[in-house]
Amino acid sequence: MLRIAIQNKGRLNEQSVDLLHELGIDVDSAKRKFLSKATNFPIEVLYLRDDDIPQVVANGTAALGIVGMNEVAERGCDVDVVTKLGFGGCRISLAIPKGDDYQGVEYFQGKRIATSYPAILENFLREQGVVAEIKVITGSVEIAPAAGIADAIFDIVSSGGTLVTNGLKEVERVFESEAVLIANKNLSAEERELLDELLFRIESERVSRGKKYLLMNIPTSSLDEAVKILPAMRSPTVMPLAAEGWCSLHSVVDATDLWEKVRQLKAIGAEGILVLTLDKIIP
Ligand code: ATP
Ligand code: MG
Question: How far is the CA of 128 from the centre of ligand 2 (A)?
Fold first, then answer.
């Protein structure tokens, strides 16, 4: 049995549950409990606040976790970051009152900086040789300058809208984050095997994303050219048609290239082109 900790509510909850579903793991997210078992995979899901996830994985209460890289870095917990997951993207940046002149990090020398990420900030300031006063605030960090509690802030930014509303401007992007899968450093052989199975499924989801399955009829005389247009996993599948001089060609293409490929294929005589949504590619 593999136990995975995910956020119980908040920005990463829904996408974490969706990811498990995409991996074919049937967890009951509607009747969310503290701990719930999947019906079709030996995994149980532990729902926690994101702050607690790195710690719980580090001490082995859960074998795996899904959490923002920012939390992993801030807590300094000893876990393996197994893979990035491609959602929950954000950055942690330094921001100052928008009217202030900014020439470089020396601006922060002797300043008071409000943040919920003191460890990441301290590390950055040390690297830059800047000495500043770090004010730890949980909650609305962005109001600290207007409230007179701090001169600047170090906080999560995604679009930057919150900064503008609070009369601030982003001056240093310090830490790029996204959701990651983390693992305990001492997994049992059974847990390791289950993790490998999950990674295999994650990889196949990644490969399948944004791909389309394309099939068409094409004159046999155009086949060589069509194969050049359509590099598939090994090569496109070709099947003879009952009609003399024609064959059926199947391939997988990136959705972004689809219309360009269709144009080229029509130009060499392709007909009856079908574009199908692709569920999975198992590499
Ligand atoms: P919890 O109650 O679980 O402690 P929280 O309030 O600390 O939740 P959320 O706001 O739900 O955290 O954000 C969870 C994670 O989502 C962040 O740690 C970060 O990795 C990611 N994230 C992505 N975009 C943003 C954003 N615009 N603001 C805040 N977090 C974001
Ligand atoms: Mg939190």
Answer: 27
Same fold, 2-88+178-207 and 210-277: no
Contacts of 184 (CB under 8 A, 6+ apart): 57, 58, 60, 62, 63, 64, 79, 80, 191
Q: Which residues form ligand 1's pocket by a CB distance below 6 Å?
A: 7, 10-12, 49-51, 68, 70-71, 88, 90, 156, 158, 177
The count of other CB atoms within 10 Å of the CB of residue 178 is 16
Structure tokens of 60?
A: 């082995």
User: Which of 283 and 147 is assigned the larger pLDDT?
Assistant: 147
CATH topology of domain 2-88+178-207: D-Maltodextrin-Binding Protein; domain 2 (3.40.190)
Q: Report the half-sphere exposure of 81 (CA within 13 A, side-chain side).
A: 15
What are the sequence ranges of the domains in the chain? 2-88+178-207, 90-177, 210-277
Kindly report the CATH number that applies to the domain delimited by 210-277.
Answer: 3.30.70.120
Q: In the predicted model, is pLDDT for residue 232 greater than 90? A: no
Q: What is the pLDDT of residue 282?
A: 85
71 pLDDT above the threshold of 60: yes
Give the confidence band of 30 by pLDDT, cuts at 50, 70, 90.
low
In this predicted structure, the answer to whether residue 32 has a pLDDT above a threshold of 90 is no
Q: What is the pTM for the complete model shown?
A: 0.88
CATH superfamily membership of 90-177: Periplasmic binding protein-like II (3.40.190.10)
